[in-house]
Amino acid sequence: MFDARLRPLIDIPLNAMARRLSGTGITPNMITGLGFAIGFLAATALAFQLNQIALVLILLSRFMDGLDGAVARHSKPRSRHAGSKSQETDLGGYYDIVADFLFYSGIILAFAIGRPEHALMAAFLIFCFVGTGSSFLAYAIIAAKTGRNHEKQGRKSFYYLTGITEGSETIFVLILICLFPHWFDRIAAIFGVLCLMTTMGRVMQARRDFG
Q: Which parts pass through the membrane (predicted)?
């Protein structure tokens, strides 16, 4: 819901750092891999109830998630495809989206491992994540097939369909979980319902656009 509004503000520091990194030999896929590794460490810390450490690692991982795309846009092309003007590639976009969904669900799984008394609500939240993720990806496939695209949230490898729960809101929820773990069930219930509303909205949007 807030991704499009926050994107211009986030892009300023990301683009500044990307310009510094361009030409250093650091590739976008390296940054994606590093961000995913940091996300794995965040999940591990959360499983051991090291909430403050997990919070710092989550924020760092999400910074890397934004930085990889910025570096791709500012670096000289290494693509095998002729005419490429940057290091943005379909494979890089694929890596990025797979890492994102594994990260989000992995953090919730790790929380449940460290606090099994919350496992039921963690399972519910992951179920809701599957709804938002599948509705988003399914729409992206059809949108690409029909030539739909936009850049409200910056140039991306996938068509991003807006909703109540997007990346910004999900990160905010992960922060809340680290700061207030005893409120997990309430947070998961509220955000899970919002995720289901987002899924329903996307299905209705798909029906209007593709029906």
A: 21-47, 93-113, 119-142, 158-180, 186-204
In 3D space, the residue among 26, 31, 191, 17 whose CA is nearest the CA of residue 104 turns out to be 191
- The C-alpha atoms of residue 36 and residue 98 are separated, in whole angstroms, by 10
- For residues 178 and 127, give the distance between their C-alpha atoms in angstroms, rounded to a whole number: 20
pLDDT value at position 75?
A: 65
Q: Which domains does the chain have, with CATH numbers?
A: 3-210 (1.20.120.1760)
Rounded Cα–Cα distance for residues 38 and 59 (Å): 10
CB of 92 closer than 8 Å to CB of 157: yes
Contact present, 64 and 35 (Cβ < 8 Å): yes
Report yes or no: 14 and 177 within 8 Å, Cβ to Cβ.
no
How far apart are the C-alpha atoms of 178 and 2, rounded to whole Å? 21
Q: pTM of the entire structure?
A: 0.82
Biggest CA pair distance of the chain = 54
Q: Mind listing the pLDDT tens digit for each residue in 112-128? A: 999 999 999 999 999 99
Q: How confident is the model at residue 26 (pLDDT cuts 50, 70, 90)?
A: confident
Mean pLDDT of the chain: 84
Contact between residue 37 and residue 101 where contact means Cβ atoms under 8 Å apart: no
